[in-house]
Write a structure and sequence with these properties.
The chain has 246 residues and is α/β, with parallel strands linked by helices. It contains eleven helices and eight strands. It is globular and about 55 Å long.
Length: 246
């Protein structure tokens, strides 16, 4: 199964991506996590730690610019093996090129997120992409190339509007959409999201101080407190996705 996580910057895409990926892996599913954000910090939410996350991003930058003497590889699978990293619970994470880097034709240099997600094989494993803010990567994906798009929306007008556009883009590409109503404090927050996005399936992730603390401390929420309400809701989301894929 291929899953993409989209939404406005700051909506919580990376937290959702990292926690869902870890939950899938804990349940015994092989997981490939693709960090396609301009500021690639998915490793933090996966539990790699700051140093390892920055090192992973630095290798990707060197490949994009032809620096560092790194070995070139011919395929995306070889790139995943050579330049990915193992996060806790067996998640394999790799950083995609920035969208403004040209595709060089090399199997590891200049490969953009849409191509990386499109070419990674998902049979027998879950491929999850934490997309850049907005709808750029989604707009470049081919029809049917993603099974599910998790559209993350906070209860703010800007976040909801970006989510609305992401939904339209995903639906136009024949992907199933699930709205992740994130940082919901009360019924008014949920009503604001439902007023625009309520025709689609929706899961609620409550405002959770544990997730905020994990972000501040640079650790994975699932490692800080797996029983926190927001973390439990994201684990339940992964279980729902896995059941629907079975």
């Amino acid at each position: 199964m291929k899953i993409a996580v989209a939404g406005k910057g700051g909506a919580g895409k990376t937290t959702v991506s990292g926690t869902v990926a870890r939950a899938f892996a804990r349940a015994g599913h092989p997981v490939i996590a693709v960090d396609a954000d301009v500021n690639p910090m998915l490793g933090i939410s996966l539990g790699l730690g700051m140093d390892a996350t920055e090192s992973l991003a630095a290798v990707r930058q060197d490949l994009d610019h032809g620096d560092g003497g790194h070995e070139h590889v011919a395929t995306v699978e070889a790139m995943l093996e050579r330049y990915g990293a193992d996060a806790p619970d067996g998640v394999r994470v790799v950083v995609a090129s920035r969208v403004d880097r040209p595709d060089s034709g090399c199997g590891c240099c200049g490969i953009t997120a849409d191509r990386l997600l499109g070419e990674l094989e998902s049979t027998g494993r879950t491929v999850l992409g934490d997309l850049e803010a907005g709808i750029g990567v989604l707009a470049r994906m081919g029809a049917g190339s993603l099974d599910v798009v998790l559209v993350v929306a906070n209860p703010t007008p800007k976040s909801i509007e970006v989510a609305r556009r992401a939904v339209e883009t995903a639906v136009a590409r024949d992907s199933r959409v699930l709205i992740v109503a994130n940082r919901v404090r009360d019924d008014a927050d949920l009503d604001a999201i439902r007023a625009v996005l309520g025709e689609h399936d929706l899961v609620v992730i409550p405002e959770d101080p544990v997730i905020a603390r994990a972000d501040a401390e640079g650790v994975a929420p699932i490692d800080l407190d797996a029983e926190a309400p927001g973390v439990r809701a994201l684990v339940a989301l992964s279980e729902r996705l896995a059941a629907q894929a079975a």
